[in-house]
Records
---
Amino acid sequence: MAEHEDRELSERYRELGREQPPRELDAKILAAARARPGLRRWALPLSIAAVIVLSATVTLEMQRERAQPENRIETPQQQKIEAQTAPAPVPTAPPAPAAKRAVDVSTSAPAAGRPSRESADRERFERAAPAAAEERAKQLGAAESPERWLERIAELRRAGRDDEADRLLAEFRRQFPDYRIPEAMRGRVERR
Amino acid sequence: MEATDEQLMLAYAAGDAAAFETLYARHKGGLYRFVLRGMKERGIAEELFQEIWMRVIEARARYAPQARFTTWLYTIAHHRMIDHWRKRGLAVAPLDPGDPDDPAPPEPAADRAREPQRQAETNEQLARLARALAALPVAQREVFLMREEGGLSIAEIAAATGANEEAVKSRLRYALAKLRGALDG
């Protein structure tokens, strides 16, 4: 019943009239609609070009950043610095804690005469995030055995690099507070 | 197969002006009557009608067919009308049926084929309907017109007006009762 009444009401409503907008109003609206897609024909290629340039830049940047860790050990300059850090007796150069090594790289590079792009980038990165570099150094250091740490400190001490040895020893004590340094080793790692 | 409204709008957004013309032709009449019968003056109705389509044109790049195009179109219309009433300091509240500012009821379209007496009765009935429609509270009239002119469902009207479905059903029920009453004399 209600449905029938609704239908009848709809029919009556339609009989009220089917007014349409005036033609000039149609013309205005259609002209506006035609004008705007024209602009879009330029906007679309421009947007696509912008997206391509941006994507390429981001991709290159990501590739460069990803390449940095591998390059760090392998660049000739890096090897030279490693050799300077660890002179004679130990067959493989004792790696300094990463943070320290990074500082060495960045500060030594100009003295070596030809700063590599990788070291310059890393310096910039680590300047920007010193806390992160320190944290990473701790993690690397913590992965080493206490005996290896002490060997490195002893080497520094023997090379006369007492300040570095002191810093490393202090760091060692923070990392291994319960480690008891053997008497013989203590004589080699502590400042005399 | 005929393109849907949503396909036409996407084609227009991609730069096809002809797609807009088809879309406009489909909806201009319903939307025009919706605005015309919802407002108080023809001049204002035409201004709003134009503004609504300009919004559609401007928003084409952001258009995403999450709902029917018609729902989106009438949502824009609803907001433009609300803005208009607010600017004029009018609340979207029930209108007093005796409000002298109410729009004059449109002249009914006569069916010239009918016999004179029957035609007179029909015209009288339509005149009553037009008066009753004009006298409906704004929210009830809007719901009725969205259904009649836009073909919107209860849920779509709720989405377009920001009201809940129960409120829409209630408004429609009241509107229909008053308009049926007008038809019955």
Note: Residues 145 and 176 of chain A are 10 Å apart (CA to CA).
---
Amino acid sequence: MTAQGQIYQGKQLVQADALANVDAVIPGEPFLVGVRLKMQPLWHTYWKYPGDAGIPTDIKWELPEGWRAGSIQWPIPLRLQEPGDIQIYGYHDEVLLIQQITPAKNVTNSTVKLSAKVNWLVCEKICIPGDAVVTLSLPSASTNSPANTELFSRFQKQLPVPPGANFSASWKTEVTGLVLNVTQPDLAKFPSVDFFPSPPENVAVGHPRLESHEGATYTFRIPLDNAKQDFKSLPGLIVFGNSVDGRDRRAWDISVGQEMAAANENSTLSEVLRFLVFGFIGGFILNLMPCVLPVISLKIFGFVRQAGQSRARIFRRGLAFIAGIFAWFLGLALVLVIIKSAGGQPVWAAQFTNPYFVLFMSAVVLVFALNLFGVFEINLPQWLSRRAVAAEGSMQGDAGSFFQGVFATVLATPCTAPFLGTALGFAFTQSATVILLMFGSIALGMSAPYFLLSAQPAWLKFLPKPGAWMARVKQFMGFLLIATLLFLLSVLGAQRGVACLIWTAAFLLVLSIACWMKGAFITPLASAKTRGLVLLLMLVLVIGSGIYFIGDKFQSAAAVANPTAPSGGWEKFTPERLASELQQGHSIFIDFTAEWCITCKFNESTVLETAAVRAAFSERQIVKLKADWTNGDPAITKLLKQFGRPGVPLYVLYPGGTAQPYVFPELLTKNIVLEKLETVNRSIASQ
Amino acid sequence: MKTLLLALSSIVATTLFAADSPPVGAAAPDFSLPDASGKTHGLSEYKGKYVVLEWFNPECPFVKKHYGSGNMQKLQGEYTGKGVVWLTIDSNAPGSEGNLSPEQAQKVMKDWKTKQTALLLDPEGKAGRTYNARNTPHMFVINPEGKVIYEGAIDSKASPNPADIPSSTNYVKVALDESMSGKPVSNANTRPYGCSVKYK
């Protein structure tokens, strides 16, 4: 239906009408409507942020009871210049302003009539306000087919999208405005790169200026007129294309979560120090986290054994262990720095989203367990032992401690302890130096107890004296490692399914046999010929089964698409789902979790799945979304990063409306959750 | 030393950002323009008095909103009555919408029963560019010491609809009232709305 626009000098300046992307309404099923404005040549209407002059087009839908309309999806506007350095954002010729409409669950009428009041300001040399009522009639049916596809797809292509995985942005506050740095390798391909701000209501913003670009990094300066207002960042679009006004332009919306992700690349010294302290505390707490526990017992066992040796040696072992911790963390930091500079997206604990890494860890843990059970002994090759003996005979022990240190920290990575989460989220957006310092302080925190214990061995006297019981303790430690193995296998099962788990188990069985062969036949008493033969057979077994079970069967088992099918009122998180729920003004709680995250499981069973918390969720009609990161879903990775978090767990509450999301601490308690849910307005939630 | 550094860095920052309008708290730049009757008004002659600057375009729907409803005339009358100098400025270039010859300016003032101190003609856009006035209406309030104490919109509802006026907060009125009673201006900087000034 076409409505009357305003007439100026005999011309109708704007023709407005409404269209749907379907030919019939299915009850309860959302569809899209678009208000199309056709303007006379050279005349323009405005974007949601009009710039220095003008006002945005306003659309108010009149909908039947129980229907909902989402907010306007604005296509990328043109930036138009007027004399006197006046800059506005708007549309020429034709624009389609799309909104999602959600019909009621039951629609009684056979034909549904929708209407909207549209207000706009259209300008060329002069400005004229206009308005129209547009209407749309659609039959109600149980099936429908797409309509107006060309028009909708043409304008949907021009909608801003969330930035891709390789995108990063940082903000800096200066005396009279903001400096925005954005990096994305693909940007350099485009001759035209712009920032279009969409500041909050009643905030005056000067003209963003592209100050410089070096490779894929672009720096914009955005003057802020409101000197008293303390903004750390602004929502807006990064617009890029082959020309400043081409149809081929694309844009990234950098609004969502920017406020939180806004990290200051030029942090002050005290800020850095504070985070280093957090890193230290976080590292220390890592020792107490559930997924480190089995390894801690291993380490304690090591100390017991050392208790009988000389102080100097104990201290050396301690230092070697600490060196191992440092080597792992600084290695991680280096990899992070390298990946960061290569434009990739490193994520804390991301190793555990890679099934091959989990498989490798399982194999290592099993071999260690068998070693503890006494199936085989680790003895270094003779040439090495000889050299080691020559080097004071302590080499082997130090190297062992070193690798124990590495091993302990490898297993610690999936546990982002509360302080560590903040500290790492911070380190993520920082310069290489800060990342290295940060990881260094984590390593320092994690190794502090070992340093104290090995430097003050007097405290070791509280530990029991070595004896025959040690063999029993050692064997028992093996069971703890088997428990760790079970955990790793459950992760693998969640990632790749049962078939995959069986192939892995088969491989592990062959690996165990190889270990047994080593223990039984490769003894110092056996002849060189036997040793060589057995060693060959072991290699053939391990490599053969590796190729057969892992290279072939394992690889062909596809990733489980939806590792944990959400239940109990939880629904699967997708960015689209979040966007549509937000548009409809719903309150949303997101649980970022993973199969391998023990802290997540703990929070879920002790807080989120308790009767009281469940009741509070349903009473306030909060949409519960589960973001399962078991396989490292990149969409979830991106959102985690926007919240400044490098890993799970993360719990976020969108209170509804336009209120800022609230981020919960990583260790939940019932009280924290219930208190926060109290603040969700019941009336908003039930709208 | 510290102050010197601060001053230096803010100068650098200001040049880098090419700050837009004279910031609130800064001295209002001087200008000198003829009014509709040919008499020249310089801002400096009004030192010691509150001055309101109002950018104007009689063709603009947002300006018409405030004159058609009598809102602007009421405000002008109320504050010129309290000794405030109200200068309405037309910075639109010759040949573009809203540009006024002295005769047309006098006719608009008479027809609309306006109550400002003077309607100044700035066809070259000199004063407009100095203040980086971007909209009609775009409002500035200057205190007796010659400092800008308010810059931005006339009121809180950015629309061309006169029906919105009664429910809007008039920022100019608030700024003048607060400043006159010795209080700091609570909302000294807002986003102006309206048509763009049609510069040469």
Note: Chain B has a mean pLDDT of 87.
---
Amino acid sequence: MKKKQLLILLSFAVLMNGFAQLRTLEGKVLNEKSKPMVHANVFIKGTIEGATSDSLGHFSFTTRQKGEIILCVRMLGYAEYLIQVPDNKSTALVLKMRPDNIALDNVVVTAGNFRLKGNGKFGKMSAVDIVTTAGSTGDLYHSLRTLPGAQMVGESGKLFIRGGDSNESQTYIDEMHVLSPYTTTGDNVPVRGRYSPFMFEGINFSTGASSSEYAQGLSSILALNTKDVSPITKIGVNASSVGMSGGGTRAFEKGSVSVNLDYQNMKPYYSLFPGRLDWINPYQLFSGSSQIRFNPNQSTVFKTFIGYDKTTFVQQLTSLDNQATRDFGMKDDNFYLNSTFQKMTESGYKIFTGAAFSYKNQHIENAVIPADTYHDKEWEVHLKAKATKRYTDFLRLNAGIEDFIRHDETTYSNSSAVHSDSINHSIGAFFATAVLNISPDLYAELSERMEYTSINNLWNSNPRLALSYNLKGVHFSAIVGKYTQLPENKYLLLDQNLLAGQCLQYVGGMYYEKKDKVYRIETYYKKYTDLALQEPATLNSEGYGYSKGVDVFFNDRALFKNFEYMLAYSFNLSKRKYQDYTELSTPQFASTHNATVSIKYNLQSLKSILGITNRFASGRPYHDPTKEGIMNSTTGFYNSVDMSLTYLASKRVIIYASATNLLGRQNVYNYNYTADANSPGGYRKVPVIDSSNRFFYIGIFITLSGKTAYDVSNF
Amino acid sequence: MKTIKNYLCVLFFLLPIAASAQDLAPVVQSVNSAKDVSGLIQVRSQLERFVEAQPLQWLADYYLAYVDVQLSFMVPSKDEKSLYLGEAETCLNKLSGLEVPDKSEIYTLKGFRLYALIASDPKTNGPKYSGEIMSAYSTALGINPNNPRAVILSGLFKNDMAKYMHQPYEDFQKDVDKAAALFAAENTTLLTPTWGKSWVDFALTKK
């Protein structure tokens, strides 16, 4: 009996199914340019009934469903398309799709912007690429100097971009400001970046007209993004001609913890390659860093980074005036903490909050004259919150607030006096950006940044307009924007009423990429006003200037197999009257022509990567007191041929060696003059040159854990 | 009356499950038999509909990820490769939260996807993902040392790495033989992954 009932039920179901009438759904799928879309997936939402469009965009399938249905169309790279189809309208449907948010959001306004890694379709270089660029000596900032826009200021090591001073370039890690991104070094020793390039997944270098999100950088912004959660546990060590380091990452289910310790001591190196400097105690650096990364779910990211380093050295310096020597003794403590939280909500908001703390404590013995001391303690708290949402295919909005709280206190003492100064101030800002997708090929960004500087109780408005147009694969960009930056602390300590320097920037460029070849050309004009000007009787904000030029970049990875070359050229004309300049002049750090040719060859048979870089810069202006005016003379040109070799000894051992200035040219960056009645013209002229003609580096990187390969990063 | 009600309840619960597995079966068979991009895209579309209609059916997400990885090997455009591999990652992340009979298959597919990422841009992605691939396969084999897909793909990757370093991989033959034996003995059903034998055939051409 039970079996009979079951049979009846099943038969009833089959009969009911048979009686339902078939309904045909048919039509065409088109893209935003009304062209047919092939292989689009068209189906009734929530069911498996559907079809794939053919080469003419045509689709057709049958269903037993009656009444109004929701038809869904999907294609990777396009936004899902939904349409309600009534019972009496199932044929001759025209379904038009648009590129999805990810594709839209990946298009960026490219003028003045290099996305070197990660973020977006233009990312081509990795940390290994950066380090294997000859002349970089494994340093991120040295590597960036091979790009157009960067000027060769070899004695400094800092970034000087498009005629701008080094303090006009700012560094951000995970969107939070870094107060002291450079190491502390001795006199005439170029600085390096504090953080290893291997820590970072995304490296975004803006050489001008940068986003309104970034503050207090008149020239350039280097925005670095740390790596996401590491899925693998690893341990690594490194030994080199300048020191050693070790660390590792422990991976958990939803996060990872990384630690790295680094010790550098230049004594062994100087004993082999003495150089021109005299060291009483050699340069020593001890640093430790750690990062916690936690993803509780797919839409939430939490990161905290802590870094501490201590630098000490005693360098014997000779005064130009009276030939007396002093032992310049440096003790520098630097601490950086950065904590960020990101979440994508179900309603499509991307929320970001962050807090960063930078601290620097520097003590110098025999700073200016024998037996004096100089002490500088500086810190900054940076707080930031922002939200981003794409409201429609046409509009994406981004808005946020941030605050920089700064403190600097200096004390100088000698046998006759003690002088202390301090400043406490904050910079509060609100910023908002609207990204408008006007058409599939035309994008616009409208943004505004309102800043309040407490030190002088002033508001600044910094609007920005950016346009990007894609013409058959060639991207054209144009940006105009206003930027402000407070003067350096050494001026604010003297006068807290100084205005923020202003820079109005115009940038236009073209970018084209095809088959591993990249072409870029950009032109720019920057107008500076309200710069700090030290006149004989006053310190005021009447400094001004301009900078204009053209940058050209070409990168080819397709000419020969395993071979890559890069050409970068910058032409810059800049003049300013600021600081102690008595007239409008070309700044001492600016050279008119800068060119770099860089090649890399992957010698697979030798398991090696060879890099050669040839850098050239025209002479820099300098002040000769025996002549009229200022910046009235020019040094000789700069040239350096650098080489690097990366040897993959095994999947766990990498050896890296580099040498700078192989030809041994003595490059002169500037001249210092000191009064000397016995010298011609009454002055003794001393060139500012490198501490040694060449610098050699060799390091071995060993991965101790078993589950990773060719990985020099402990993070 | 009560008995009829019981039968109806059982039917309502059992029929959809049996029906979904049966409906997916021909699609899974098509995955293994598709020869070109067009064929794979047709199968991909069917899998996408299954994922939409039956979000808890892990096999649909699993095979969608697998087909996306296969397509990334076959399409010439880097942008398209990136889209397929991006969707595969989304499917794999979703699988981490579903009830899956054998997690070893998920880790194997993760490694396979990373292998495709490296193939799409060896210079950039090789140093970046080599470690993760080895970790994924090691984890898969740690869960199930007799997963033939993990055995063959892990062996192929180690062999490729050794070749790049101009060194021999001594256990390559052992891995291939083991995988072949495991595939031959494998009891495949409608609800388990069945792909991968072709990689054994591919490995034999590398010897």
Note: The radius of gyration of chain B is 19 Å.
---
Amino acid sequence: MYAFSPHRPTTLRQAANLLAKQEEAKLVAGGHTLIPTMKLRLAGPKHLIDLSRIEGLRDIEVTGRSLIIGAMTTHAEVSISPVARESIPALAELAEKIGDPAVRHRGTIGGSIANNDPNADYPAAVLGLGATVITNKRRIHANEFFKGLFETALAPDEIITKVQFPKVNKAGYVKFPNPASRYALVGVFVSKRGSEIRVAVTGAGANGVFRMRAFEEALKKRFAPKSLEGLSAPAEGMASDIHGSAEYRAHLIGVLARRAVAAAIA
Amino acid sequence: MPATGIGAPVRRKEDHRFLTGRGHYTDDINRAGQSYAYFVRSPHAHAAIKRVDTSRARAMPGVLAVLTGEEFANDKIGSLVCGWMINSKDGSAMKMAPHPAIARGKVNHVGDAVGVVVAETLAQAMDAAEKLAVDYDVLPAVVDPAKAQMPSAPQIHEIAPSNTIYDWQIGDATTVEAVFRNANHVVKLDIVNNRLVPNAIEPRAAIAEYDSGTQTLTLWNTTQNPHVARLVISAFVGIAPEHKLRVIAADVGGGFGSKIFIYPEEVVCLWAARRIGRPVKWVSGRSEAFLADAHGRDHVTHAEMALDGEHRITGLRVKTVANLGAYMSTFSSSIPTYLYATLLSGQYAIPAIHCEVNAVYTNTVPVDAYRGAGRPEATFVVERLVEVAARELGVDVADLRRKNFITRFPHQTPVIMNYDAGDYAASLDRALELADYGGFEGRKRESSRRGKLRGIGFSTYIEACGIAPSQAAGSLGCGVGLWESAEVRVNPTGSVEVLTGCHQHGQGHETTFAQVVSDRLGIPIENVSIVHGDTDKVQFGMGTYGSRSGAVGISAIVKALDKIEAKAKRVAAHVLEAAEGDIVLKDGNFTVSGTDKSAAWGDVALQAYIAHKFGGGELEPGLKEGAFYDPTNFTFPAGCHICEIEVDPQTGESEIVAWTAVDDFGTVVNPLIVEGQVHGGIVQGVGQALFEGAVYDRDGQLLTGSLMDYCLPRAHNVPALKVDMTTTKCPSNPLGIKGCGEAGAIAAPAAVINALTHAIGTEELTMPATAQNVWLALQKSAHLHKAA
């Protein structure tokens, strides 16, 4: 690890000011991506702005037809939250299966989606539920939020405060974990809200999380695994590495999508 | 004293300190004035070093020294060596290339050290290391053993044309050719035994300290064999004379073989400590360990088995290319030869065997012994061939094995080994019963209803442990003797210290060795301490590996205890005023047979030291005896493992749903510890079969360079294991012990792959059989079926 200066702001405004003012500053939420990267000297921010002392970033609440989760809420908190479990069970179950216990008790939803790791679970839920990311400046719809590998629509001095998930009729998430890292080699999130069907895929795309429009069309006719029978994703555009070729990932999208739909209607 | 004697499931005495953070691992030790070493490692697999500029690194804050291969050579420090000489077919000696602890002129694998920075703090050493400028001229690399001998491959060492270290053989080629000509069935397999990266929970570490007053060097080191380390570092590397070097390996957190070897880092720490006059500490990082610790396995093999019309195995023909990496590690040459090919007879009466082994250099991390060392590779070859033979012949896999089992002992195989005892049918029968072999078809139908494929696979393995006798090992090229020593020191109060040349790094010797003493002398186990891991305390010893500590180390203790008992009886005879021949030692008491006279163990011990009851002319005071035990044969643990597996044909994921292990380890000192060894071994074997595999790209970069990409097995990957034992005692050592440390890792890979191939109906499956590999195999066989 290289030397750095730690900062512990207590308000969003202080955090935003530090972020704007300090050169080579980084926000740290749970730190479960950033800190290991720093320990390996692959990242060396000069300033680290810890968000954990800012009030009001850790609430889980239902307002109207939405479930709103504070950006600093840990995966473990989401997974055991009665409110989350009640309103969008698939989301709580997704959180329950992220990483390992240490990751789940430190890692946060805001940190995960701001990092936009192409193999992370949460981006699939945010896109698969058509959520809205709320920052200290604006509201960004999921469709506009994820911009590629580790890239998001966030401005350099923008801080995620909440994520607003619309309640849906049905939702399901199934992932195939990379056996070593336990990140999603492929993960598929499906949801149905009225006539709106979403199928979001993480892990597989060469360019990060994406929607499978062909599957969504097929599910519009009938929201059942059978509707996806015989459908598979094209290998083109898929990531390929020692853990999974593009062909294998494409194949898994079909298998996991059917299983996710089955889980959603179970 | 049955509660703590031989055969009692005594809880490990050492666990309390390990589990409560009171162990003394190398990194727990800190010396006054200690500095920190950080190694600069080559990012290239194969490159000429054009220039090393240390000036900027030297100028960094806190830096005490920046040392490179140049200084190392100038100080005339010797090369690391491989201690087992193997000759090629043509009689020529193996081609051992120099292995300097810091590369000079050329690097040969990613991770090869090109320099070391020693600084006041580790962070300062790391900062300065970034300023060490090394200009490389990158050369083409070769990583695949199958390609290393091709004319197109770059030559890595001048001494080894075609990168060939040796071209060795065992057995009679002519007889084997004849057998294959007359065979009714020939089974052929191409096998890749995947390269593994050992991952002991404690990374390697070293602290070196120089005392200029006595001109003595002390090395605290994570080693499995401190005396061998001292011998090699003094006699070959030449850092210090043997009597001026002390090696201490206190608590060591796992080794699995990877801590047997003498590595560059400890040599450099010793050298640097003397140069700068300060203690130097180095602790490996986990990612660093992937590039700096010897790897295991990495064979490419073509194997054929011949059978006659009655399904008797008549011959075996094996050709293996073994990857030894960029340099020859300490015992690397022996692993794919005398620890591999000599086990190719398995549990079967095979009249003719011929095996050729080519060992090659590649631009990869050196390869050496890893849990099982050669024997898992041999078992995989034999057990895959037998299973496939049964499938091709349409006979039951258990029946084919039983038909070919060796049933009379001793049995001389065509590949050196002389099996002394065993009952292979007994372990097979017990395993069939425990696994409910008869119920398999029903379970398969049930799996099928859930859309799953189910398979069952066997591995009736054999291994050779307690490697020795020394004379035999010497005749096969081993540079050291493989006996063990013990010294039993009885204190005046009757408590006992046992000094052993074995080294514990997870095996539980402090418990099992004490049980043997408790059993023999009839004293409480709490009154026995086991001392190991310090060359200043233990006179000499060969360390722990190859499942040798029970069979060889305990045998040495028993031999010393014989002498202790004899001496104690002489003392007791004086105390009890009786004839020596009438003294009986039982349950911690000396009695005179036929009388009611008795003396407690502690009283006799005290009398031995105060020497009031006998004159110096009659008897020497004191009660301390030593012994060296050299085995007369290897020991031959064997057993039967049965794996049952379920496969999801849609994703290729597999799940081991049942495991049965029935092993014959001879006499068991502590069944609790033995069962633990079996569990650990199986899980490591499952790791090799399903998850683990070092992957290099064509340029020699290790793609599986951390636990994010190199997959170790986890608890959920194994079901509750059914473990049982059958017993035939080892006839060659006093307690009849065979050894148990490696059995699981030797047996498991073949059992898993036999089960998986059974489930998916194709033999075309390589390890690690990841979900993707299983899915690919299914796709391929589906296409083949369609085409047919």
Note: Chain A has eleven helices and 14 strands.
